[in-house]
Write a structure and sequence with these properties.
This protein is α+β, with helices and mostly antiparallel strands and 819 residues long. The chain is built from 24 helices and 34 strands. A hairpin with a 4-residue loop joins strand 13 and strand 14. The N and C termini lie far apart (69 Å).
Length: 819
């Protein structure tokens, strides 16, 4: 035995080779067993696996192994989110082609994952930069196009100067690029969009199918979609035929609207300010504030356009302003401002000395516009509102909306915060969009039989070349008329790749369809999906959208992609998320080299519940290493004796035997329930540690078959229960105990209910002869302690009464007599 510790290097190599050669984790779609599809979000091949990856994949691996041993057919695949801007940035820095850089990283990271012993079916590996994959991105794009879910238009878009590409709204975080944190600017470009808004209602309504998703994620998606019922009101511009359409959920305040504010990028702004005295000053204001979107702590600033609109309910001429706190992403990009009844409007009006008019009176105190120190946003009754005076707010909302529809100045409508998904990217390393432009035919779809439109390899990234710079790619012939034509040079947002990859894993080698219909209906939805909360909107919303469209295209019959969702916490060191910039990164390779993969896995699972942040601890790693060595030593100590044991009919007459046997089965029960319920791996491992302590305390009687039997069952249980968490060591110890087949071909242990019952009994508690409660106590619990426990259990029921007598019928019941 290695005094420095168990020989993990040899053990881990041995069993990784065994698993691979024997295809232990190959997926078999026999459909003879219940299926279980376990999936972790696939990584970007950045070059190295980090501890965040290890945590994500360790969680998934435990679940996959556990379910396999419970008798499920398992699909547990791995692949690579391989397109994207970082590869191009790396190419610029290192002078390496993105394809070469990406494939080298994939090879290295695949090796790291194999060293960690994750139970992936590598036969199903995919990389989104492969033609076999992105061909189907293009195929789906064309199907979406035929369905009316794809269009191209000139739009004011989010532009990242550093990344030299556009960003979807979801990829702008507090005014900054989600990828590089540069300030995002607005720019007008012709862009391709997916009409995700057509599915907004289904994305909301079918949340009821996601019973096992964290409420936090569902709330984030609900808020992002932002469905709201309200009224659209027409404000005519003085001296113009143009109309400003305003969406409001509070039409009851319309008589109090004293000015209008537009978003800086509102489409009519250029016309409004043309030839106005402050035109240049206004343009400077607009350009500055376009880049500062969605900053919660932004100081409200505005500038007067010099133009006026007409409040349609009273024909009052009111000024039109531009304000930095109004966003095109909300409503129509224009708001009517009621400073007496909206705090943002109140602050803006106070700053720029704009009028306030009270139109809702408080039922509790007399308000006046002149003395208000803040907006009155509560419900009350209408004043200064013509025929609607004295009407309660709730009633007025509907009444005024109906009246405006009759007067043709407004209409009831539904508004969504969600905007269509901008999928064009002006970069090289992505899926080419399969559209051709012909002078005669206009936009033409690339014929399906010509897919994939191949991404050309001859590109000089060092010069910043994109598809727009490659003439042999651009120039083509029109498939309709045969004339000269040119290709679309934008590539697809890489979130397209990750929006359906889980379906491609099901049949990664099919050549006539992106996913086999029958196989998809068997395996989908994914039973357990695991990934970070940061993907709640970007990836998860897009994946839900794609699933619904693919179902409508009759590619499968599934409405939602992921049945259960686990959002694991981050790995923290020194109080901050691990990152190179903070200098607090722990390299998994260093820990594997020093302690072995099983120690890394065990610590990651033991240090915190999956949904909580995990604080890295060198002491914690040491502790897990010592524990695995204790397990190795105790099994090795008794292994030869255990090989000779035959199952016997155990009589369990010895108290120590009974105690260990009972503890063993209690541990099986605890670990099983902890893994099944909320994935409490930390408490499951703690339970195994307690069982190991009990085994070390147990005194084996080598000439007693009962004693040998009890110890054998305890040792087998320890090895078995650790197997999903520390699989290499478990396989080795299982073999040491004389077992001939892989532990992962065994059925999960079941606990013996009788063994647990033997140590505990349930005692009914009566009050004056009527059953009121029960307690569980040890079978040898003293009578006085049982009485005290009974009184404590029912103390809330007898708090005003006097206990006259406590009658105990041993092992039967407790009757508390009260007066």
């Amino acid at each position: 035995m290695n005094k420095e510790g168990y020989p993990f290097v040899e053990i881990e190599r041995k069993w990784q080779k065994f698993w691979e050669e024997n295809q232990i984790f190959k997926t078999i779609s026999s459909k003879k067993k219940p299926k279980y599809y376990c999936l972790e979000m696939f990584p970007y091949p950045s070059g190295k696996i980090h501890m965040g990856h290890v945590r994500n994949y360790a969680i998934g691996d435990v679940i996959a192994r556990f379910k396999r041993m419970q008798g499920y057919e398992i699909l547990h695949p791995m692949g690579w989110d391989a397109f994207g801007l970082p590869a191009e940035n790396a190419a610029l820095e290192k002078g390496v082609h993105p394809a070469k850089w990406t494939l080298q990283n994939i090879e290295y990271m695949r090796g790291q994952l194999k060293k960690l012993g994750f139970s992936y079916d590598w036969n199903r590996e995919i990389a989104t930069c492969s033609q076999d994959y992105y061909k189907w991105n293009q195929w789906l794009f064309l199907k979406f196009y035929e369905k009316g879910l794809v269009y191209k238009k000139e739009a004011e878009v989010n532009w990242c100067e550093k990344c030299q590409t556009v960003l979807a709204n979801e990829q702008v975080e507090k005014g900054l690029c989600w990828r590089c944190s540069s300030v995002v600017k607005s720019k007008k470009l012709d862009q391709w969009f997916f009409k995700i808004t057509d599915y907004a209602d289904r994305l909301l309504e079918e949340q009821n199918l996601l019973e096992n998703w964290p409420q936090r994620v569902l709330t984030m998606q609900t808020n992002w979609i932002g469905k709201s019922f309200g009224t659209e009101i027409d404000f005519k511009i003085v001296g113009s035929a143009e109309i400003i359409k305003v969406f409001t959920t509070r039409p009851d305040t319309i008589f109090g609207a004293t000015y209008v504010v537009l978003a800086p990028e509102y489409p009519l702004v250029e016309k409004l300010i043309k030839d106005m005295p402050q035109e240049n000053k206004i343009k400077e204001f607009i350009e500055f504030h376009k880049t500062r979107k969605e900053l919660e702590d932004i100081e409200k600033q505005g500038i007067f356009t010099g133009q006026y609109a007409i409040n349609p309910v009273n024909n009052e001429k009111i000024p039109i302003w531009i304000g930095n706190y109004v966003l095109m992403e909300y409503g129509t990009g224009a708001i009517m401002c009621v400073p007496a009844h909206d705090q943002r409007d109140f602050e803006f009006a106070m700053k720029y000395d704009l009028p306030r008019r009270l139109v809702i009176q408080s039922p509790d105190e007399k308000l006046t516009a002149e003395t208000m120190t803040c907006a009155f946003e509560e419900e009350g009754y209408l004043v200064n509102s013509a025929q609607f005076d004295n009407m309660p707010c709730k009633q007025a909302i509907d009444a005024i909306s109906v009246w405006m529809e009759k007067e043709n100045i407004g209409r009831k409508t539904i508004n969504y915060r969600l905007k269509d998904w901008l999928v064009s990217r002006q970069r090289y390393w992505g899926t080419p969009i399969p559209i051709i432009y012909c002078q005669n035919c206009g936009k033409v779809k690339v014929p399906y039989e010509q897919l994939p439109v191949q991404l050309p390899e001859r590109v000089d990234i060092q010069k910043g070349e994109t598809l727009a710079d490659i003439s042999e790619f651009i120039n083509t012939t029109c498939p309709n008329c045969g004339n000269k034509a040119y290709r679309e040079t934008d590539t697809m947002d890489t979130f397209v790749d990750s929006s359906w990859y889980f379906a491609r894993y099901i049949s990664p080698k099919t050549e006539n369809t992106p996913v086999d219909f029958n196989e998809a209906n068997y395996w989908l939805p994914v039973d357990q999906y695991i990934g970070g909360i940061e993907h709640a909107i970007l990836h998860l919303l897009y994946a839900r959208f794609f699933t619904k469209v693919m179902a409508d295209l009759e590619l499968f019959d599934v409405k939602e992609p992921f049945k259960n969702l686990l959002t694991q916490g981050m790995v923290i060191k020194d109080g901050a998320k691990m990152s190179k910039s903070k200098g607090n990164v722990v390299d998994p390779n260093d820990i594997i080299t020093k302690y072995g993969a099983d120690t890394v896995r065990l610590f990651i699972l033991f240090a915190a519940p999956p949904e909580k942040d995990l604080e890295w601890s060198d002491k914690g790693i040491e502790g897990c290493w010592r524990f695995l060595n204790r397990v190795y030593r105790i099994v090795q100590q008794y292994a030869e004796k255990m090989k000779r044991i035959q199952d016997v009919e155990c009589r369990m007459q010895n108290a120590e035997d009974k105690k260990l046997y009972s503890f063993t089965h209690k541990t099986i029960k605890r670990v099983t329930e902890d893994i099944e319920n909320e994935f409490h791996f930390n408490t499951a491992i703690a339970a195994v540690m307690e069982l190991v302590n009990e085994i070390y305390k147990y005194r084996l009687r080598e000439d007693d078959e009962n004693s040998l039997f009890v110890l054998n069952k305890a040792l087998e249980a320890v090895v078995f229960l650790l197997s999903p968490m520390a699989p290499h060591l478990a396989e080795e110890l299982w073999q040491l105990l004389g077992k001939k087949t892989s532990i992962f071909n065994q059925m999960w242990l079941k606990y013996d209910p009788e063994a647990i019952k033997e140590q505990e009994i349930t005692i009914p508690i009566q009050i004056n002869g009527k059953l009121k409660a029960t307690i569980s106590v040890a079978v040898d619990c003293p009578e006085e302690e049982i009485k005290n426990l009974a009184i404590k259990e029912i103390e809330n029921k007898i708090k005003d009464k006097q206990v006259k007598k406590v009658i105990l019928v041993p092992k039967k019941l407790v009757n508390v007599v009260v007066g």
